[in-house]
Specification:
This protein is mostly beta strands and about 290 residues long. The protein has four helices and 15 strands. The protein is globular, with a radius of gyration of 19 Å. It has an eight-stranded antiparallel sheet with strand order 1-4-13-6-7-8-9-15. A hairpin with an 8-residue loop joins strand 6 and strand 7. Keywords: Apoplast, Cell wall, Cell wall biogenesis/degradation, Disulfide bond, Glycosidase, Hydrolase, Secreted, Signal, Transferase. Its EC number is 2.4.1.207. Belongs to the glycosyl hydrolase 16 family. InterPro entries: Beta-glucanase-like, Beta-glucanase/XTH, ConA-like_dom_sf, XET_C, XTH. It is found in: Secreted, Cell wall; Secreted, Extracellular space, Apoplast.
């Protein structure tokens, strides 16, 4: 009995912090691309990008010479976009691995963007997953970021995990292993991206800010820094698609989140969110009116 009670308590605590079931699994609802080149092309750093023979996966890496990136062949006006990603262990400070939507090339200096970014780290400290939304931002230092940051409930270097963005006319939802971790609703036309965007993946050196605000920089003694992507899901409407092309559903109800999904998101935010721009007293919230509504 003396041994049984501590063991029971350990099991109960572990279960209490275990990943809850969201009840809806978009990463399995939609079929993955049959081949990388059916959906993407290399954008930069082709010599730092390797596509598997069956085109089911792509590996990109950063060294002192270059990083690498890929871009979807076509733009989208909405959709669900997912990939299974495995990150590199060890010293990765200053390195960003990103999976995101953007129209920066179509609207330079005035673009929209929806980001999932993995901020590299030092040994013994966890990766930070940063989600962000830019609306008609610029590259001149006046970008208004809407960052929410999380530590994960698993080791993202030990295996592949699914990360997804669902973008509909009324909301953006970020998913990790089908758990919604953030819902960004459309509260006004000025705070929500509405122009078509392309899907990207990349790895690059962001030493000036990525790890503890630039305290730790990329150290190329540990190169190459590698990111692996597989099981791409690209389910969206192109700008030219007819009206019958409907946005991907975010729940069993279609739009919005179910009660189970809200509960799962609350769990993720209570236990793993480490930064919320709306709660940052140093931010000028007149620039982010959605925080006040």
């Amino acid at each position: 009995m003396d041994l049984f009670l501590p063991c029971l308590l350990f099991v109960m605590l572990h279960r209490g912090n275990a990943q809850p079931s969201p009840g809806y699994y978009p990463s399995y609802r939609f079929r993955p691309l049959r081949g990388f080149y059916r959906g993407f092309n290399n954008l930069w750093g082709p010599e730092h990008q390797s596509v598997s023979g069956d085109q089911s996966s792509v590996t990109i890496w950063l060294d002192r010479n270059s990083g690498s990136g890929f871009k979807s062949i076509r733009p989208f006006r909405n959709g669900y976009f997912g990939a299974s990603i495995k990150l590199q262990p060890g010293y990765t400070a200053g390195v960003i691995t990103a999976f995101y939507l953007s129209n920066n090339q179509a609207h330079p200096g005035f673009h929209d963007e929806v980001d999932i970014e993995f901020l590299g780290t030092t040994p013994g400290k966890p990766y930070t997953l940063q989600t962000n939304v830019y609306v008609r931002g610029s590259g001149d230092g006046n970008i208004i970021g809407r960052e929410m940051k999380f530590h994960l409930w698993f080791d993202p270097t030990a295996g592949f995990h699914n990360y997804g963005i669902l973008w509909s006319p009324n909301e953006i939802i970020f998913f990790v292993d089908d758990v919604p971790i953030r819902q960004y609703p459309r509260k006004s036309a000025g705070t929500f991206p509405q122009r078509p965007m392309w899907l990207y993946g990349s790895i690059w050196d962001a030493s000036s800010w990525a790890t503890e605000d630039g305290k730790y920089r990329a150290d190329y003694r540990y190169q190459p820094f590698v990111a692996r992507f597989t099981r791409f899901i690209v389910r969206g409407c192109s700008p030219a698609a007819p009206p019958r092309c409907r946005p991907a559903p975010s729940s069993t109800y279609g739009a919005g989140l179910s009660r189970r999904q809200y509960a799962a998101m609350g769990w993720a935010q209570r236990h793993f969110m480490v930064y919320n721009y709306c709660r940052d007293p140093k931010r000028d919230h007149s620039l982010t009116p959605e925080c006040r509504s």
